[in-house]
Amino acid sequence: MAKINKTRVPMREQPAEERIKNFDSVPLGYTDEEAMAEAQRCIQCKDPSCETECPVNMKIRAMIEKVAEGNFEEAFLIAKEDNPIPAISGRVCPQEDQCEGVCTMGKKADAINIGKLGAFLGDWAMQNGVTEELHIEERNEKVAVIGSGPAGISCAVDLRKLGYRVTLFEALHIAGGVLQYGIPAFRLPKDIVDYELSYLQKIGVDLRLNNIVGQNIKFDELRWEFDAIFIGTGAGAPRFLGIEGEKLMGVYSANEFLIRVNLMKAYKFPEYDTPIVCGDSVGVIGAGNVAMDAARCAVRLGAREVYILYRRTKQESPARDEELEHALEEGVIFEELVNPTRVLGSEDGWVTGIEMVRMELGELDDSGRPRPVKIEGGEFTMELDTVVNALGTLPNRLFLDRTPELETTPRGAIKTDEKLMTNVKGVFAGGDAMSGGATVIQALGEGKRAAASIHGYLSGI
Amino acid sequence: MKHRITRKEDLNAADYLIEVEASMVAERFLPGNFAVLITVPRGERIPMSIQKAEDGKITMLIKKLGKTSVELDSFEVGDSLEAVIGPMGNSPELKRYGNIVFASDLVCGHAENYALCKALQEIEGNHVTSIQTFPTKADIYPKKELSEAFCDEYYLTTLDGSCGIKGHYTEVLKDLLDEGKVDIIFAGGDIPALRDLAGLTEPYGVPTIVTVRQIMIDATGMCGSCRVFVDGEMKLTCIDGPMFDAHKLNFEDIINRMAMFKEKETRAMEYYNKKILPSVGFT
Ligand SMILES: Cc1cc2nc3c(=O)[nH]c(=O)nc-3n(C[C@H](O)[C@H](O)[C@H](O)COP(=O)(O)OP(=O)(O)OC[C@H]3O[C@@H](n4cnc5c(N)ncnc54)[C@H](O)[C@@H]3O)c2cc1C
Ligand code: FES
Question: Which pTM was predicted?
Answer without folding.
Answer: 0.93
